[in-house]
Design goal:
heterodimer; A: 256 residues; alpha+beta; Fumarylacetoacetate hydrolase, domain 2; eight-stranded mixed beta sheet; five-stranded mixed beta sheet; 7 helices; 30% strand; B: 262 residues; 6 helices
Chain lengths: 256, 262
């Protein structure tokens, strides 16, 4: 008997809960991006049933470089839950993850609902604040290798996030430089302009994409706008810090 | 390496530059990574160009990113000469005819405020000597066919320099964080390359310090009024002919090249 989308959702949910690598679903059967989103929703429903709460969304493939790498022309999204939050200055335990990597991001805090086709001006008007952020991504697939439907089904590799201090969204955050350090040495550098040319474009895309799946961005939601540089692999003992122009710095450390 | 061969190779590069006909790499004539000989070739052309009426107005620093240094197997930047006829005003048209195979980089330029003859300069002395920082576009070009360059090829070829554009918004070093300033090199509102000040040897001032010392030692010290292009803040991109490409450096301003002239 062939497996249902719910079977795949359970499979990925378990892999995420155990921090374990699994083969790609696409090795088992071909499936579409839409089916990938259906699996993601079913997989997240399992988390909610265990008491996790949705606190926002993350955007992925928001840089030309990453789109080219994966061979697509569209951004992707995933859901953030309260269990993914990592305290600024806190630590994570490697045991919880399969093969985690970190990338610098910019985060939005929503103050008004937002969904569907919106302009950049409307999107910005719904933002309470912006913050420097880092996302811990951890594909559940072996060797971090996947097709587009695979990564979508796997909640767009989302597994953790750290937020720095909030700032007024009236500040021009379109081209802020940053340096991400591991143990004090620069490992990635970039500018927020790497997010679709302006991070607010990612928020516009988020409003459009969540609406397609019957959801909306709600007041209090966090939106991670997308990776700004290539991701850096995490190892036990590492101290990761990212310093942003104007927005300040944030950090966390990695334990066994 | 004979002085005859050095003169001969300098002549080949000079001819490729003036005719816009690229040549094959020249590195096979040298011992591996003989950068001294490569600078000797560059220096012959610098002297020749000055004699031909080109005015030396500054320097460029190249290979300031760790990734590019690794590609070329070196652990140091390199330098080339900027002449008066390489400068294009902000937003003016850049002609295809003046170039062979141009690529574009966004950089921070420094305007030198005093002569820097001292070989053992301190960073503090370099900071005091920088009068202004400016946003800049460097249009690099290679006289070596298809950019098949090694370290020796690019140094001999005036560090693959072409043209440059300076933005008109000078800032004092006290007014900008050169390490954390974001950079976006845009075409039609889309970023082709993004980066940050720290991409240039950790801080563009580190590159400036290296250059000032190196030029004093090489006998061509930086002088008051010189322009220094300190090195790329993000990946180099190919020219989009027919388009305007704008470099924006957060806190420093912007500068444009219009690549529309036949």
């Amino acid at each position: 008997m062939s497996k249902s989308l719910n079977d795949y959702a359970a499979f990925l949910d378990q892999a995420a809960a155990e921090g374990r690598e699994v083969p790609q679903i696409s090795e088992d059967r071909a499936f579409t991006v839409d089916e990938g989103y259906a699996i993601q929703a079913l997989s997240l429903a399992r988390r909610y049933a265990r008491g996790e709460r949705r606190v926002g969304v993350k955007m992925g493939l928001t840089s030309r470089v990453k789109m080219t790498q994966v061979g697509v022309n569209e951004v992707i999204w995933g859901r953030l839950t309260d269990a993914m939050r990592v305290e600024e200055g806190g630590s994570i335990s490697l045991a919880r993850y399969a093969h985690p990597r970190v990338e610098p991001e910019l985060a939005f805090l929503m103050k008004a609902p937002l969904a569907g086709e919106v302009s950049a001006v409307e999107a910005l008007a719904a933002v309470e604040a912006v913050a420097p952020a880092m996302e811990i991504i951890d594909s559940r697939y072996r060797n971090f290798k996947f097709t587009l439907p695979d990564v979508v089904a796997d909640n767009s590799s989302s597994s953790g996030f750290v937020l720095g201090g909030w700032h007024s969204p009236t500040l021009d955050f379109s081209n802020l430089g940053l340096v991400m350090e591991a143990d004090g040495r620069a490992v990635q550098v970039g500018s927020t302009a790497a997010i679709l040319g302006h991070p607010v474009r990612s928020l516009v895309a988020a409003a459009r994409m969540v609406a397609r799946w019957g959801e909306s961005l709600k007041p209090g939601d966090i939106v991670l706008a997308g990776g700004i540089t290539a991701a850096h692999p995490l190892a036990a003992g590492m101290h990761i810090r990212t310093q942003f122009q104007t927005l300040g710095a944030l950090s966390f450390s990695v334990k066994e | 390496m004979t002085s005859h061969l050095i003169t001969d190779l300098a002549g080949k590069i000079h001819e490729a530059w003036s005719t816009r006909n690229p040549i094959a790499p020249i590195r096979d004539h040298f011992a591996a990574a003989d950068t001294d000989a490569a600078y000797a070739v560059q220096n012959i052309n610098t002297t020749r160009w000055e004699a031909e009426g080109r005015r030396l107005v500054g320097r460029k620093i190249g290979l300031t990113s760790k990734a590019v240094q690794k590609q070329l197997g070196v652990d140091q930047p390199d330098y080339g000469m900027l002449f008066h006829d390489m400068e294009v005003p902000d937003g003016w048209e850049i002609s295809r005819k003046d170039l062979i195979q141009p690529k574009v980089e966004a950089e921070i330029a420094f305007v030198v405020g005093r002569d820097l003859d001292e070989e053992n300069l301190s960073i503090a002395e370099v900071i005091r000597a920088v009068e202004y920082a400016l946003p800049a576009i460097e249009v690099v070009d290679s006289r070596i066919a298809d950019w098949k360059i090694g370290i020796v090829d690019t140094i001999a070829d005036n560090a693959s320099s072409g043209l440059y554009v300076l933005g008109g918004s000078p800032k004092r070093l006290t007014d900008i964080d050169l390490r954390l300033c974001g950079m976006s090199l845009d075409c039609r509102g889309e970023p082709l390359s993004t980066g940050v000040g720290a991409a240039c040897l950790g801080n563009p001032l580190n590159a400036m310090w290296w250059l000032a010392r190196t030029m004093a030692r090489a006998g061509r010290p930086l002088k008051a009024g010189d322009t220094v292009l300190s090195g790329a803040l993000g990946p180099m991109v190919t020219v989009q002919w027919g388009e305007v490409m704008e470099a924006r450096i957060e806190g420093l301003g912007s500068v444009r090249g219009d690549y529309s002239k036949e």
